[in-house]
Queue: 3 jobs
Job 1
Amino acid sequence: MTEPSREAPLTAAHNIEPFFVLHKAAAGASLTTSRARRRVDKIPQPSSPSPKSPKRPRDEDGDDEGDMELYEQLRLEAFHRTWSKIQSTINEVLRGINLKLFDQVLRWVQESFSTVRSVIRPCPAEIQQPYPLLTDVICRKIPTAFVLTKNAEFVDDVTTFRDLSDHLESNGCHLAKLSSTELSAKYGVAGCLKSLLRQLLSDVPDVADVSALASWYCRAKNYDQPIIIVIDDLEQCSGDVLGELVMTLTEWVIKIPIFFVMGIATTLDAPRKLLSSEALQQLDPCQLTMGSPSDRMNALVEAILVKPCAGFCISHEVAVFLKNYFFRHDGTITSFISALKLACSKHFSVEPLSFLCMGTLEEDCENFWRDKFDAMPEAMQKQAFGLPSCTRENNSIKPGNNLVEGLSALMKLQRDWSSVLSCLYEAGRHGKVQLLDIFCEAINPDLRTKKDSNIELLMSKVTSGNLPSGNSGAGRRFLAQALDTVRYMPMETLFRVLKVWSIHSEGMNEINDKVKELQSTTTSADCMRITKDKWTRSTNSTANGAVPLNEKATMLLDDITRKFLVPVECLPFHEIICFKNVGVLQSALIGNPRRMVQLDLLKSQSRLKCSCCSRNGIAVSASLHDTSIMCNLAQEYGDVINLQDWYLSFDGIINNTNSKGKRKLIGSPSKKKSKAAPQESEAMIQARFCRAVTELQITGLLRMPSKRRPDLVQRVAFGP
Amino acid sequence: MAPRGGHAAAAASSGSEDEEVEEAGFSRSYFLAKEKEPSSAKKRARAAAAGKLADLNLVDEQVLRESLAEIPPKHEKEIDALTRSYKDQYRNWLFELRCGFGLLMYGFGSKKLLLEDFASTTLTDFTVVVVNGYLPSINLKQVIAAIAEIFWEQTKLKQKKQSGKKSQLSQNFASQSIDDIISFLNNQTPEDGHDGVCLLIHNIDGPALRDAESQQCLAQVSCCPRICIVASVDHVNAPLLWDKKMVHTQFKWSWYHVPTFAPYNVECVFYPLILASGGHAQTTKTALVVLQSLTPNAQSVFRVLAEYQLANEKEEGMPVSSLYTKCRERFLVSSQVTLNSHLTEFKDHDLVKIKKHSDGQDCLRIPLVPDALQKLLQELA
């Protein structure tokens, strides 16, 4: 791309065309990929009956490239499978949480429909007649469900309303969605009707008219269901257009049962502020409320991070970043999920062995790993054992010589970790611990290494009733809080918690037994207690300590925490499944052009890694990129820059150093060149100045002079 | 792209721990800059008067443009190395594209060559449609119709292969609405062998694409099943173009900081040169273009006004009543209404400014210096 000769013919024609086709996807062009695909296919699938795969015979030349493509293809496949698993889990979780609301809406729809139909059941001829039916005035109201979303940001509700629409549609309702762009003054009510017809009718007439809808509704297959119009963000709509739509439809509500479902992000006042009283009177409101965002967040974290549903997991640093990103930056689940997806794609893109992740999705994962490992080129096999987690000295768990065993052990330990964390959260949530918080602590590898020394100290603090807030315990705040909650938990709650523990610990026999044992003692003790003195129990347990059931549960929890809560980063081979590079994620997620472009210009020498510009110790060297010189000079000014002044400084820097260079470099070979070149001509300097100003203008760091003040330009950005 | 949005952008675009520190630094430099700013109007005037562009020995625009083409490149070696380092990332970029993300390149320097090189060397499985967003006008509908056309051709080809005969169906996308075309694009299903279309947009923050409607349209296109998007931005406030829905569910940007330090040769073309546009030449030229498009009578009215202004340089302007009398004498206008319609035309094109005279009546003045006015009259004749 640096050869101008090749670019020249292309640029001339294509630079001024608004758009052009650079090249078509040629069938021949994808030869390499298809070859790679074939080779991927050659690798025996784990489910295939031939478990032993001999090492592939490989050609000598072009082999590395082929391998690279092959494994890239595998990693891509792994990403798609992993992410689709995560995505479907997310969808399931969100739908599960919203199901209650969806059912409420459905019930309301059915009730409203039967109310409307109980008034009158018009025949097709009646529906299509141009004048209204004579009925009670009250029944001309349109049933409307206002769904309070409790989200400040609308973006999270997009999926909720999509799911709601699916839910209603699958239950037989006719469904149409109107977005705020359609309900805008620009489209008008005609645009809305057109959009409605597009969504419901197969062939849309040129003139959007409700009568077209009426004749469609008269058909036998459409007749017995209501039409639901979903408007997901009411606040963004134009009140006039919506009002007009309401007034239009209200004429028809008996003939065509159309109901509204409207999402409200703020308060119930919104419709009143938005609609005219006349339109408002035509609505028959019903109020429904969605679950809170933090509930949804907890459920999501549990489903995709605590119980890694697809094998992929994230490191402590990444988790903390995501947590901050969620709480401080954005607060929407959508952005959290997209950040996670980006992390996932980065992992599969960068980590060569990440395709092994796919194994966890297979029924027989060991077989899968074995096949893949055998087929690997030697360099890659070596790479696996050269992973930092396998080579570090102070590993508590030593990696074996076998990758398959290593990975299986990793999965087993991950499962244990997840069970223990679930138990901890089950206890902690009674003390208002958020899952994301405790999750971040549980995957912190530093705590694991420090823990053994700190734990005694910590425990003593907890027992004395203080929440550890000192420096040693600060990192384990939420874990300690969870333990603490168990310690002071009322017996009934403890019983429920133990019940959940026994479910979580199902895969771990040793713990499960202990939980069961505790459960049995609790049951008997509990019965006795409740009959005896329900109200003095809490003082009793701390005072005499004769029945330290809470204490026992706490000990158990603490014990399993120590034993099994091993963060993934402490385990060998974790790099294969765990994404760690928080820097890469951050830069891809949050592009910061405002800062970075200014830094590009102010520190161009470090970006270009050149040796010429920062020599001599001059603040602004003439060898810098022209725009960079100008940007540096601009820092000297206030928010307006005098062009003449700026030009003179620029001129000064370029010519000054030129003459200085002349004096200094006598005798050096490069000297001849600079001697031959005369001082930059005025025209050239002006041209360079012009170009630099234009470039600053393109980057938006500068605004052009106004007509009133033609000699001043305005600085827009101040400091990176 | 209002500058005041910049604060929000700076605050919003860093989610890291050192956000507060950064924030403080930002506000400090802002206030430092404010301090340097001349506060009172008087000081401001002094700053403005400190130096004028006219004081410089400005070369002719023609010469300036010639020199512009000959600016010697700096740091060629380093820029080469930088570009090579990006080449190594091409495969990762492709990977991410296939994962369903859109690539958004930013950083100082033209990214046109870089992206087109990436497209022609790495995106060989895609049909690549390039949009030059830096141009002042782009018809997005044509772009989308072109993409739809590509898919339509593929479908036809496939049908031909299957049935052995040429399909008689035809689609005229140009006559369909944008919504219709987008719903056609949305109905495409991923097929084997075809990776679909990659939309490569240079300067998605360019002047013609900066409005909300274009961005909405691009966002809708970018989440169609067989379309992926690679774009570049140059403006520092570019993130303000998109809301969360667009960023997270439609474009799905993955940002890449790729400063190239390459000159904005093509992108620059549509910006006026700062040392050329300020002079008289430009204003005279534009005034001439406007005047030549008017009727001969209107031109003559302007001439009357100009001649009066040249003859009476010290005066604030020509009273409307005297202009009317003069024009009537020369049979240029028959009534005040006709004169007013000419004047409205002049005002709309900034050929004439109206001022209240000290004695209360409206005065007309052409906002050009005598020399420029003289030249204009010569050229008009």
Note: Chain B touches chain A through 130 residues (CB under 8 Å).
Job 2
Amino acid sequence: MNRKTLAAAFPVTVPVLMGYLAIGMAFGLMLQSAGYGVGWALLMSLTIYAGSGQYLGVSLLATGAAPAQVAFLTLMINFRHLVYGLSMLEKFRGMGPRKLYMIFSLTDETYALLSSARPPAGVEPHDYYFAVAMLDHSYWILGSVLGSLLGSALGMDTTGVDFAMTALFLVIAVGQWKKAGSHLPALLGAGATLISLLLVGQEDMLLPALALIVVALTLLRPRLEGREAEPVREEESQCP
Amino acid sequence: MPLTPIQSLISIAIMAGVTFLTRALPFLLFDRGERPPKVVLYLGRVLPPAIIAMLIVYCVRGVTFASPAGWVPTLLAGAAAVLLHLWKGNDLLSIFGATGLYMVLVQGVFG
């Protein structure tokens, strides 16, 4: 990757820089307050690289969730990536070994940038995509490391910082609600989870809730199919 | 930290592996031009809002109604997140505004 490619890619990634630094820092702070220091923040942001997934990850680590639960919940929260990949099949074709990294780093924001951004003349498109992906990833790592260091250095009272996760999900939900053809999936998700909370309790509520949601949505398919004509792909949260 | 470092590492490895898998699956299955099954596309569209709603309920599962401190901060900060977002539509403002308010409420007002 040469300087010209980086110089062309950097300006389009600036909004992501702001977003990832902020959301990454909140992640680092949250992880710190759960008892995991800067090394853990670096490791998670380097290898997982998923905003809402890592926020959930903090809570899975903090509650000592079992491996099966970790796997299933990570799968569910990242299910939307399926839609992203489908629309990147063409773009990533012929990228060789770099394609693996492109797939790994396909977050909400990188997806959004790659869908819309056109490389300027004289810049090889595949180099450009790669540069955008690497820049975004580096912002995310930087943000989470800074947040973690800040949390330990200031010794500040971080009680309540975990509300950032609730706020993030609320923000995503507001965005989805505005765009949705039908509000039934969202209402069903909340209803099923409440039922599960009341019947099963706090500890093991998520898996029954998920099962209920998937079964109900599958049964409702004849009713919902068609009303959701627009694919819900632009969640546009400021997090990967 | 209820987990040992080794258990934590295993959990993180699972998160990383599964996250990569969800990103790689379309490329593994459909890179040669086959069309994805309709039910997969359907679930890909309707699951995200349901999952996010589920996670919101999960986040507020610890709310109690014995005293105002158990539920007022969550209600106020949650409302702040939604209203800020409807008003300005800026992710960062909504998230940090609501989190800041929550921290002030639980540390100061109800602390």
Note: Residues 3-154 of chain A form one domain.
Job 3
Amino acid sequence: MKFSPSLFDVNSLNFERQGNLVLKGATFRILPGEYCAIIGPNGGGKTTLIRLLLGLEKPTSGEIKLFGTPQNRFRDWNRIGYVPQRSALVDSTFPATVREVVGMGRYARRGILGFESAEDKAAIAEAMELMGVSDLSDRLIGNLSGGQRQRVMIARALASKPDVLIVDEPNTGVDVESQHRFYELLRTLNRTRKMSILFITHDIGVIAEDISRVLFVNQTLLVSQSPAEMIRCDEMSRLYGVPAHVVCHNH
Amino acid sequence: MMEMLNYPFMQRAFVAGLMIAVLASLSGSFIVLRRYSLLSETLAHVSLVGVSVGLLFGMSPLWMAVLASLVASWMIEYLRSVHGMYSDSVLAIFLSGSLALAIVIVSLAGSFNASLFSYLFGSILSVSVEDLWVMGIFGSLAMGLLLVFFKELYFIAFDEDVARAGGIRVTMLNFMLVSVIAIIIALSIRVVGTLLIGALMVIPAVAAIRFGMGFYPTTLLAIGLALISVVIGLSASYFFSLPSGAAIVLCLLVIFIVALVVNRR
């Protein structure tokens, strides 16, 4: 049997910003094929946790391993696709076509002086096709709607053919129909392509049936192997500190 | 019209001007997109400190400008990226601080105002063969670096965080970009002048962006607009005895206004 290491292996992770504790003692593992939701109140440290995993912030202490490799020695960043918070908010005058933006997802694979290969072109075309933005190829990113931009940013993340997709509250400013398509896409990627998903969201009700694990982040980290239990109303009320009512829905 | 090219000083001015047009507009595209336009203006003022020191102590003003500009670019990037200071605040400090320092040095010396004038506004008469060699060598180096890392710099300009998360060495490339810009600015002061080089970096990119194209055609258009401005500006400088830098920048302004009118949105 082939050994398959954790995608993320985090041990006793602490992070302080200007003397303030943001994250304390976070310890968890994400396994291949998992669909993991990260929930918690605003300012609780969800985005910080993601940024720590991606090496965008340096932990105060603790250890992060990516695909079994300590983060400081990890080089295969193209195995991780990242769609940041508010990624759809793009400068309307930025001179970038949809094709150029999606193509950025291949830059790390191409390396320095690497020209776009047939494989790169095929991966870009496939990502655009999957996200339904092929017909927008030559349009400027700034001229698209919020939902279209969101799909372009996800296509960029998918163009690198990642093993894991990290998405940080991508639905800010996006209409309900686009949100629905987005959730469908995540489900397809996870179930049919076996892509692992790490997803920060406030709307846990809509993906309740899909997720295999929940990380609740509010300075400390609480990991639930049984999402169904964690997203019970009483549990959510206790975690958020306010009365919460969870509605499992599909828009 | 073509008779001006019979004069060696005009030949040198054109060679230098066209080199600078390509370098300034190419690098300028990146700083405009990163809302870092004032960097060129700031480093130009810093290079004036180098020129003043060079003139005061009898050293090469060009080399001293390169040195001053490089050191300042690293300090600016360090304060911005490591200490997290606002870009515009850091640039404002260096801009006014370096200008003050240059003025003090000039006041102390008091005897090289005529020479300094040509560095402030550019002079086609002042480009020597040696200057061309220096521009050629360092310009090629700068151009090479910009082309090798073109796609990475573009990604960083679009989304620095995602570029970093994708494994692109953002910090190293940011330092490289400001270093290249510092060198280009220092090399440009003979032709365009320290007070006007910022325009040659920024205006072509801003005008080209108005045409609403992708990044690659926008960059090519910016280079084309800069080349046109240098050719017209240097010609005007020759025929009407105008400072070359001012003539080039006025051409750029006309082009910008045309781009603005043609592409009203």
Note: Residues 40 and 217 of chain A are 5 Å apart (CA to CA).
